[in-house]
Amino acid sequence: MKSIHKKYNHIEGTHGRSNLKQYSGGFNMIELQVALVILAAGLLSFAGLYRIYTVQTTYIEQTSMPASTYYVVSQSNRWMRQLGSSAEMEVSPGQSPWAPAVSCCTEYKIRLNSLTKNFEEIQAAADVTMEAVE
Amino acid sequence: MSKQSAASCKNNGGFTILELMVVSILMTIVVLITAQFWRWFSPNVSFMIARGHILREARVAMENLAADFGSAVGASSVSGSGLLICKDSGDYPNGIADWTAPDVMVDYSIVNNTLQRNDLSTGSVFTIADCISNITVEQVSPTLLSITLEFAQGGADREIVFLWSSL
Q1: Residue of B19, B163, B166, B167 to mutate, interface with A, max A Cβ within 10 Å
Q2: Reported pTM
């Protein structure tokens, strides 16, 4: 206490003793209010974090699964069926499935030698042997 | 004893009862506020986590069903709580559900709240997704099949309906 007293005396000169007495009296109302405001701000920041979390989760939910009813449309093209392409998932009815731009008069029998799917890049590679159907 | 040393002795003696009471009251208020906040915050976070988990499982189930329905030429209900898909296969897929080789039959069913995919042609069984409480397969019309997947976990639930037409 002596050193503190000396310090206050050094800083504030002759008024040090009265200031030290005031300082040792505990918290005053302003300090208490400031502390409570900081505490309230901290709690509100948690509420804000939760709000952000809720909004982001809802956004992810809506973008990745926007509806509760889906119309599953199988591949109509024989090649696509044989290559194991996924069905089209539509959120509204009446849409035709995607068909590759293949058109010819000759029907082919396809022998699937190997099939490699890369799900991450949504790609598929197939080795096929085609024989014309009479 | 001088005034200064008396003040020093008084100050070095620790907290007064009043100081302790003020600190205790403040701490009680802080703990009560935190407890109330935690009571509100904790279930909500758990609910959001459950929703996220259901979303992930539903997405996986959906993509697997889509993969099998891509080459599906026939699908039917198995006693209302199972799904049997006939996939067109062979060197020359004929576009007709033969329900036998070379077509591939895949069965979906619920076992212990998990969706299991059973490839009847190869006998391989995979667990596709969990948190599934029920699957309902209903033949709405001769050409329209409705598949309802119900997900539930931690108070959160979600229902997804697939409508597949054989035409």
Answers
A1: B163
A2: 0.62
How long a stretch of residues is chain B? 167
Contact of A23 with chain B, judged by CB distance below 8 Å, is answered with no
Residues of A in contact with B67 (CB under 8 A): 84, 86-87
Is a pLDDT exceeding 70 seen at residue A32?
Answer: yes
Interface check for A109 against chain B (CB to CB < 8 A): the answer is yes
Give the pLDDT of residue A95: 57
Domain borders along chain B are 42-165
SS3 content of chain A, % helix, strand, coil (to 5): 45, 20, 30
CA distance B75 to A73: 12
Please state the ipTM of this predicted complex: 0.71
Query: What is the reported pLDDT for A91?
Result: 78
B94: helix, coil or strand?
coil
Which residues neighbour B132 within 8 Å (Cβ) at sequence distance 6 or greater?
B57, B61, B110, B113, B114, B115, B149, B150, B151
